[in-house]
Write a structure and sequence with these properties.
9% of the residues lie in helices and 45% in strands. The protein is mostly beta strands.
Length: 141
């Protein structure tokens, strides 16, 4: 399995900040449909994390992720790879979505038991994931 290079056209369509504004849901007497992600992708995973645990502390060469919090809360840290600046911290709660682009050091600290969906550009097959991820020293305090 190969990893496609990132194109300028793809990069132009990415969110400009960490938090992603959600579209207004379609609602009627049956309930509602909340649009989340409508871009070409190759993976979707459901992740559960226990309070006090940490995930990531890495960056991706080409992969990106949209992450939507179903339950719980995440302290999300990021900075451009190679930067010596402290990472930015964004608190993400239930019903919010955030975006991680390639080349961004990032980490997630779970302040509560948390369940979230992650959509990715690349396949989540282990060999593809490992070929694209680069682990870094911990970002979070």
């Amino acid at each position: 399995m190969t990893i496609d290079p990132v194109t300028p056209e793809e990069r132009a369509g990415w969110p400009k900040g960490v938090l992603v504004a959600l579209e207004k849901p379609f609602a009627d007497e049956r309930g509602a449909i909340q649009p989340l992600v409508d871009v070409p992708m190759k993976s979707c995973v459901l992740i559960s994390s226990r309070k006090g645990t940490v995930r990531a502390n890495h960056y991706h060469r080409t992969d990106w992720h949209y992450c939507y919090v179903l339950e719980g809360e995440i302290e999300y840290y990021e900075r451009p790879h190679g930067s010596e600046q402290p990472p930015t911290r964004t608190l993400v709660g239930k019903g919010q979505m955030f975006f991680t682009g390639p080349g961004l050091d990032h980490a997630m600290v779970f302040t509560e038991d948390t369940t979230f969906l992650t959509w990715g550009r690349n396949s989540r097959a282990q060999e593809v994931y490992e070929a694209d991820v680069v682990r870094i020293p911990p970002l979070q305090p």
